[in-house]
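Encode chain A's predicted structure.
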Amino acid sequence: MEYDKAIINRLKRIEGQVRGVLSMLEEGKDCREIVTQLTAIRTAVDRTAGAVIGDNLEHCIQEELAKGNTPDHVIKEAVQLLVKSR
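Encoded structure for chain A:
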């Protein structure tokens, strides 16, 4: 499956945030600032996981419907992935 450019950009932004936190640690920044940034990273990762799962779910449902199947198992699997990502 080909992923949307927006998802790739999200991950690059997260990568930059992680580098920023590493710099903050090396500079001995305040714990509160570091935790704030780590929380932002976690939120960004959660949203990105949701976007990846959503894109794949849409793709898989279309495939199942094209085959004449019901997409029930695909939906259940997507829900399991969302729960696991939390």
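The CA atoms of residues 21 and 34 lie 6 Å apart.
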